[in-house]
Amino acid sequence: MISPSRTPGAATGSGGGPGWGHGLLEEWRSLTRLGAFILITLATAARRYGDSSQVMRPQVLGEIHRSGVRLLPIVGFLGVVLGMVFVGQTVVLMEQFGGGPFTGTLMVTVFLREMAPMIAGLLVLARVGTAAVVELGTARALGEVEALEVLGIDPIHYLVVPRVVGFSAAVVSLTAYLILISLGSGYAFAYARGLKAPPLEFLGQIAGAMSALDFPLLILKTLLFGAFTGWVICYQGLARPMTLGEVGPATTRTVAVCVVGCLMLDALFIGVYLLL
């Protein structure tokens, strides 16, 4: 039975208009709250830089170890596979069809600028980020965050800043590691398939296709991927009260927001590369 004060048209709108409008409004509110959370985190990090360094330094190093060092084996394996499947086969095909001079441009444009940072960021999200949302959401649901505040410990400084720093450093380092492993295994695969170019010539083609801004832009891009992932994870786990039953949906939202956000950042950097 429908309440007199609520009609089907008011709930969903004619043709779904008000429903779509309400959804867009909620998304905008969520985006503004995330932006405010990011600004609060930056302000806290700047204001309390150097405070409790004996406590915070182990926190940051622990997050770097968990998000970066522990993922080195799987990133190394993934790098070998990508080198054989993508880099090696691409190089062989380019040589067979007379596109050898353009191999470096293709590797830089497709792999170094786009694939490697995105794969590293998504790997950190899948392997560490989802577990972090569950950890923070459970702590919030059980009242552990409020207990920190009672003890005079700033949750933003203690829980959020180390994760943002750790995720940023992890994505930057893992991207570089993935690129090196993939290029090495890709060249080995291509050489086994009959590639005549020596290693220095292969690397020279890639270096020649890079501009002076490729390195700083790659570092900035991976830093933003890691920082954005850390902010979204902490926002979904800490920014609002939740019950234990809401931890699972918060994890799902985190993955969706991080993927969409990283794709939007990637599109922004594509526009920057086109302007160079």
Distinct helical segment count: 10
The helix fraction, in percent, is over 70%
Q: Helices and strands: which structural class?
A: mainly alpha
Count of DSSP E strands?
Answer: 0
As a percent range, the share of strand residues is under 5%
- Largest sheet, if any? none
> C-alpha Rg, in Å?
23 Å
Overall 3D geometry?
A: elongated
Low confidence ranges: 1-16
Give the number of domains.
Answer: 1
| Distance N to C terminus | 62 Å
Note the run of SSEs as H and E: HHHHHHHHHH
Mean pLDDT value: 86
Q: What oligomeric state do these chains adopt? A: single chain
Describe this structure in words.
With 276 residues, the chain is mainly α. It has one domain. The chain is built from 10 helices and no strands. Helix 5 (103-141) packs parallel to helix 9 (214-238). The model is unreliable at 1-16 (pLDDT under 50).
